[in-house]
Amino acid sequence: MRAHPSLSVSLLLLCPALASAQTVQRQEGRAYAANGDTLLYRETHWLQGSQQAQSRLVLYRCADGRPFARKWMTPQGSPQTPDFALEDGRDGYQEGVRGNGAARTVYVRATSDATPVSRALEVPSGAVVDAGFDAAVRRHWADLLEGQPVAFQFLLPSRQRLVPLKLQRTGALTWKGQPAQQLQMKLDAWFDFAVPAVTLIYASADQRLLQFTGTGNVRDHKGRYPQVRVEFPSPPVAASAAELATARGQALVKTCDS
User: Which of 104, 130, 103, 105 lies closest to 118, judged by CA?
Assistant: First the structure.
């Protein structure tokens, strides 16, 4: 069975119209092979707004820094259920969620010349869409620290459905010198497709994602979704609206090969 890519907590986007009115921050991440130190790709995140209404732009970059995919996230309803749009410049793959409140449209386009497939879906406020998972972690942080499992519905765009997941703290640890908490997310029911467990490490002090280990949400050069370890060792830093505008318009490359 094929592992599903959409459980990655690859973080998100920005609302460009607010660039001049809100502080912009930038954060860097690096994705490695899950069981090694081979650098697969980089992630650069631009964030705006408060945690309750945060927008993000993410550029996925080749190991040499050239961008090959872009993801957008804008607030919509609950912080856990944002709109988002992902585009991969290598083959034109797209997926996303858009709509108004709980009434949303989920869409997928396999390649640039394929016909998009979409479905209307009711997304309740307690559900989680893409990196809205971060908001769910913060919302349930106290319960997680007490060892209580948290159950929720997670939207899988390529399956165009919600599936039940369970999140639970597995222990405390020190990650690169800082106190942290390890969480595990796994499917809370049996389905006819595989969803491997995801391991997450969050900083104890500010609930910031430090490391994600699981199935990535961008494909490799063979079209497969690899198992990755994405690290975010440093907190966001101040960035400019001009830098954000440049990232918005930067062309996506069609291959990471030199």
Answer: 105
The predicted-structure confidence for 153-171, as pLDDT tens digits, reads as follows: 999 887 889 999 999 999 9
Alpha-carbon gap, residue 147 to 181, rounded angstroms: 11
- Its domain, for residue 170, covers 5-249
Q: Is residue 257 part of a domain?
A: no
Is there a domain that residue 81 lies in? Answer: yes
What's the pTM value of the predicted model, to 2 decimals? 0.87
Mind listing the pLDDT tens digit for each residue in 84-126?
999 999 999 999 999 988 899 999 999 999 999 999 999 987 8
**Torsion, Cα of 206, 207, 211, 216 (10° steps):** -140
**Count of the separate structural domains present in the chain:** 1
Asked, for residue 188, whether it belongs to a domain, the answer is yes
Tally of CB atoms within 10 A around 208: 19
CB under 8 A, 24+ apart: contacts of 63-67: 63/39, 63/256, 64/256, 64/258, 66/253, 66/256, 67/250, 67/251, 67/252, 67/253
Query: Does the residue 224 lie in any domain?
Result: yes
Distance CA 211, CA 201 (A): 5
